[in-house]
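Extended Data, panel c. Modelled sequence:
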Amino acid sequence: MGNQKSHVLVVDVGGGTMDLSLFAVEPRPDSPLPRLQRIAVSDHVLLGGDNLDLSLSHFLEQKLTPGTQLPPSTFAQLLARCREIKEDALGAEFEEGKVWPVAVSKPGTSLLSGTLRCEVSSSEISTLLLEGFFPLVTAGEHPLRAAPGLREMGLPYAKDPAVTRHLSDFLRGREAVDFILFNGGLTKAPAIRSRILENLSRWQPGHIPKVLENTDPDLAVARGAARFLHLRATGDASRIEAGASHSYYMRVGQNSALCLLPQGALAEKNFTAGHPDLRALIGKPASFELLRNARRPDDLPGNVMSTDAEGFSELPAVETILAPPLGARAPSDPSVRVEIRTCLRSTGLLRVELLSAEPGLRWVAPWPLEFSEGSWQSEVGMDWRYRASAFRYLA
């Protein structure tokens, strides 16, 4: 990579998810290994090769049975065939004019007694898969945002299927890319690699990134984990420098949030956020909303920010029962001043705790806030109005 500082983009698109990362690589005079620093990470988006398979399947379903739907067993056959067609069509240099036959058993019959047949052409695949998921877009385009209620295990479904639009938004305002590393099974397809490189070349004219060799993108994560464990076992201190990829916040009003952890925070370092008007109710179960933002590196713990600003995304709620410490009585006034202590663990997990800041109580035990895998409606049936009263910021 030479003797100058370079920037490496990692594009990881697998079967079901997409992740983007940007790294700075700089030579070190005292070591043959360069300095690696992660400077940006995208959201973990539910968008990948499975979406291409389903899109092609639904398109062909209407060719096979116009105006109706195939039963699940027949659609499963079609889905498997579409996966084969996708891999064949995109897994080599794209061939214009090629046609793929499609045949599935008729509903309610065996494969020998009847089949439904159609064809799909390379031009149809190009329109549906390449133009639909990897279109040519302009630099800095914003993808459509998903509705906050549509989630799976806390991950947002992608409302915009265009991978290149997510990539363009991720790179907006960031350093030019010198090298690109493809990870994930979908990026093995030459047609997809070419389309991503074509977009990057349009966004940074005269600065075409070089592709780093990755012989088997499917094994990238496993090899990285094995390498990390090898370094730890041998005592090698070589690491990728990476603090918190986002700043983290807690919602304290309809359109405001309190910064809990700054972007770039080092692992195992505690941060405390407080405010004179930050209070919680004791003896009540409560659920608190967390947010994060990858574009606000200057926010400090304790800052109250408007959530109308760009880049805020919601995380699963955290829940706890704010009971008095063992042996202590609940105060006559259940509204108690609190502070919030956060720490990014070395495993990448975020620890959030409430601390009493009421001078007369002298409670030192924290209330841990546990992540919830539920949606906005918690297990104890609290609605937004109740949760807002359990924890409020009095501006």
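Residues 147-154, 372-395 have pLDDT under 50 and may be disordered. This feature is highlighted in the accompanying rendering.
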